[in-house]
């Protein structure tokens, strides 16, 4: 029986679409490379939240199969540790593909909500979406909310939740996601060590609610970070009429995905919406019990009673490490997404494959689909292809899309660029030996579908590459 604060729901159906920040929050220094919150949050090409391709068509199995390495049983117990975007996608696909009645899937989540689209958090912050509209389908899986798993015994094939409940499993899928990175910044806490009021990460719906509440009484806000989530958060707060300061330390905004020209266009759009952009490291938050401002490394001070920290994420791998699984930065998995214990797998932001942490929604969904298909068919999975990087942000006049190797250089690489400062648009196609390998679109996403398809196909452009950017072919 679930303990206090825990809730069990069963979900099915519902849309996954929408527009917004198509990544989880992203790291700027030692954390996961960009792609949250969170985001993220938070998105192969075409997984962008507002142009997401549909999930692969589900074809139900024709008969019961036992998972590899296990004796056949009447009902297969699949436990998913986590209840985020990767977990929901896996559950939905697995239950659609598995023989009817042959498996029961249980998701264990820490948050009080059932799975939701974390990539749309800045849209919630801006008031464009109600939290309930972010719900994700799970195909009829049982979702235990507010009851995270705190221990796993891989030998006994059991898990224990924070409420004290112990449950057995036949297959375990770790989808524990990632946690926000706190910057190396003085003044994050009060003298007693408590979190300072008015200072928030942006990774969950609860974070959104707290930020929105503090924004009502704040005369100004400061956002620390220069990635997609930080840019989206700053724009969302400014759209509500709040003066916003965005502080970042990189050479330019969204430097993992944009070149200097595209970043300059984004900056001008932000400034036109009421965001003041500061380049340089932050030194410390001001105030005693509540934040009153931010001091930059050069001594400048910014008055603000709300601070949003969007400085990246790190994989939640503590549970896996305590269970004796192989962990580097994330939970180490092989080409089939198997971890280092029998019938244990990891997907999404917590998984590390080939020394790479993908930290991107579209990569998590590819992993979830591949693992669901393999487990439903009772076989070991095949190597899961990683889709080209895609980042997309859509919020009124601030529209950005970056595909693949969007800042690529090197032998055989050329770029076709169109920039219009008056209209606030910037378009760039990166080609290597005449093959599109990346692209950037800012301010005008009319050709986003054609450009995304061209990068995904990886074939030489037929005709003038310029036509692809302007919509002429």
Which key phrases capture this entry?
about 475 residues, globular, 26 strands, 6-stranded mixed β-sheet, single chain, alpha/beta, 9 helices
Word description of this protein:
There is one protein chain. With 473 residues, the chain is an alpha/beta fold. Helix content is 20%, strand content 26%. It contains 9 helices and 26 strands. The chain has helices spanning 85-97, 121-126, 205-217, 228-239, 260-272, 318-322, 361-376, 448-457, 465-470, and strands at 7-10, 76-81, 103-108, 142-145, 149-153, 158-161, 166-168, 171-174, 178-180, 199-201, 221-224, 244-248, 275-279, 282-286, 293-296, 301-303, 306-309, 313-315, 331-333, 344-346, 351-353, 390-395, 398-404, 413-420, 425-432, 435-442. The strands form 7 sheets. It has a 6-stranded mixed beta sheet, covered by helices on one side. The chain has a 5-stranded parallel beta sheet with strand order 10-17-11-12-13. It has a 5-stranded antiparallel beta sheet with strand order 22-23-26-25-24, sandwiched between helices. Strand 24 and strand 25 (425-432) form a beta hairpin. Helix 1 packs parallel to helix 7. It is globular and about 65 Å long. The termini are far apart. Residues 1-5 and 7-71 have low confidence and may be disordered.
